[in-house]
Amino acid sequence: MRIGYGWDSHEFKSGIPLKIGGVILPHNKGLGGHSDGDVLLHAITDALLGAIAAPDIGSLFSPSEPKWKGADSMIFLQEALKRVGNVGYSLVNLDCTLILARPKIGPHAAAIRARIAELLKVSTDVIGIKAKTPEGMGTENAAIAHVVVLLEKNKPKQSRSKSDKPTTVAAKRS
Ligand SMILES: [Zn+2]
Fold first, then answer.
1. Cβ 112 vs Cβ 118: under 8 Å
2. Could you tell me the residue range of the domain that residue 79 belongs to?
3. Helices (DSSP H) in the chain: which residue ranges?
4. What is the pTM of this model?
5. CATH number at residue 9
6. How remote is the CA of residue 10 from the centroid of ligand 1, in Å?
7. Is the peptide bond before 66 cis (omega within 30 degrees of 0)?
8. What residue ranges of the chain have pLDDT lower than 70?
9. pLDDT of residue 153
10. If you measure from the C-alpha of residue 9 to the centroid of ligand 1, how many angstroms do you get, rounded to a whole number?
11. 92 FRET partner, CA 20 to 30 A, in 44, 62, 120, 138?
C-alpha cells in the first residue's frame, strides 16, 4: 500500500471560467494560473505522484514552459495516473477537502465526484468530496485543495499452467 498527499491553491481572477475537478462551475471569477487553474486536479495529480515518489507536478509540467499555458489539467492527471500504472499500482480511494468562500460546492459536489471518478477510471464510491469555507483564514480570494490517495499494488496475473500446485502451498502454511 502507498499513501499520497497533495495540496494546491489558486487565486480568483475576473474574466476566466471557474474549473474545479474538471467541471466548469457558474461563478463570476475563475482561478488564475499558468494552466486552466484547476486547483483540485492539481492536488490530485500531486497526491498520485507523491504516493509513488515521482517528481511533483511543477517539475513535470513547469509553469515556465509555454506549452502548458492554458493547458487542460486533465493532461497532468492522466500522466500521473499512467505513472502509477507503470509501477504496478492502482487507486484504492481518494479523499479531498476544498476550502473556498464562494461559490458553494455542495450543489456541484456530485458532478465533480462523477468527473473525477471518470478521469481516474474508478467508481464514485471511492471518491470523497468535502468543502469548507475559510473561517478566520483570510483566504477569501483563493481556492485551496487538500487530497489524500491510497494506492495498492496490482496482483500478479494468475498463471493457468498445470504445473501450479496451489494446494501444496496451502499445505505448507498449515
Ligand atoms: Zn495548481
1. no
2. 2-173
3. 39-51, 57-60, 74-86, 109-120, 166-173
4. 0.89
5. 3.30.1330.50
6. 6
7. no
8. 159-174
9. 97
10. 6
11. 62
Residue type, 21: G
Q: What is the pLDDT of residue 169?
A: 54
* Burial (CB count <10 Å: 0-12, 13-18, 19+), residue 95: middle
Q: What are phi and psi of 46, to 5 degrees?
A: -65, -35
| Beta carbons of 1 and 151 less than 8 angstroms apart | yes
Task: Please tell me the predicted confidence (pLDDT) of residue 160.
Answer: 65
- CA of residue 159 to ligand 1 center, whole Å: 43
Grid coordinates given for 170: 496451502
- Calculate how far, in angstroms, residue 56's C-alpha sits from the geometric centre of ligand 1: 11
According to DSSP, the β-strands at 127-132 and 89-99 are: parallel
Q: Residues near 10 by Cβ (< 8 Å), separated by ≥ 6?
A: 31, 32, 33, 37, 39, 42, 142, 143
Q: What separation in Å is there between the alpha carbon of 102 and the centre of ligand 1?
A: 18
Listed in sequence order, the DSSP H helices in 70-155 are 74-86, 109-120
127, 150 Cβ separation under 8 angstroms: no
Largest CA distance in the chain: 69
pLDDT in tens, 94-134: 999 999 999 999 999 999 999 999 999 999 999 999 999 99
Pairwise CA distance, residues 116 & 60, whole Å: 21
